[in-house]
């Protein structure tokens, strides 16, 4: 069995979010659990059934490989990015007085979208590599 905490720790290694680091351990686990559930809903199953979980114990009912853990953690990072991209403050222009500078957060939005797209490409690569490594066709 693989603990949710294993997945959470891998995810937390991928992001720098001071909001998460300021949370209590229990609140961090609750926040990560929401991301995990969203990630699992969007992942294609691998050889291990990623949907076979025991929420009460906080475990996957099978031992996940390192690649499977990475796969889930990367999808959690995508789920973490989505609300940041959909944030209305990034779609609004700020115009101040004469002494203040004009600020258009569109560049930050573009960077977040590019980061998400890179993460999606990474997830697809992990899935592709996993399929090749575990396929009976390619192992001959």
Q: Mind explaining what this structure looks like?
A:
Helix content is 59%, strand content 4%. With 140 residues, it is mainly α. The chain has a three-stranded antiparallel beta sheet with strand order 1-3-2. Helix 1 (4-14) crosses helix 3 (25-42), helix 3 packs across helix 4 (66-85) and helix 4 (66-85) runs antiparallel to helix 5 (106-134). The chain starts with a strand and ends in a 6-residue tail after the last helix. The mean pLDDT is 81.
How does the SSE layout of this entry go?
Blueprint: E1 2-3, H1 4-14, H2 18-21, H3 25-42, E2 53-54, E3 59-60, H4 66-85, H5 106-134
Antiparallel strand pairs: 1-3, 2-3
In helices, the fraction of residues equals: 55-70%
DSSP strand content: under 5%
Major sheet: order of its strands?
A: 1-3-2
What's the rounded overall pLDDT mean? 81
Radius of gyration from the alpha-carbon trace, in angstroms? 18 Å
Query: What is the 3D shape?
Result: flat
Termini Cα gap? 30 Å
Record field, number of beta strands: 3
């Amino acid at each position: 069995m693989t603990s949710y905490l294993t997945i959470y720790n891998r995810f937390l290694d991928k992001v720098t979010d001071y909001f998460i680091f300021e949370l209590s351990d229990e609140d961090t686990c609750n926040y990560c659990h929401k991301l995990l559930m969203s990630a699992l809903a969007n992942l294609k199953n691998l050889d291990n059934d990623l949907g076979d979980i025991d929420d009460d114990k906080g475990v996957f009912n099978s031992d996940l490989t390192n690649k499977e853990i990475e796969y889930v953690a990367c999808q959690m990072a995508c789920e973490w990015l989505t609300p940041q991209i959909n944030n209305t403050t990034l779609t609004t222009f700020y115009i101040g007085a004469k002494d203040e500078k004009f600020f258009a957060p569109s560049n930050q939005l573009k960077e977040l979208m590019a980061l998400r797209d890179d993460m999606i490409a990474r997830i697809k690569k992990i899935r592709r590599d996993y399929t090749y490594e575990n396929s009976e066709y390619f192992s001959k």
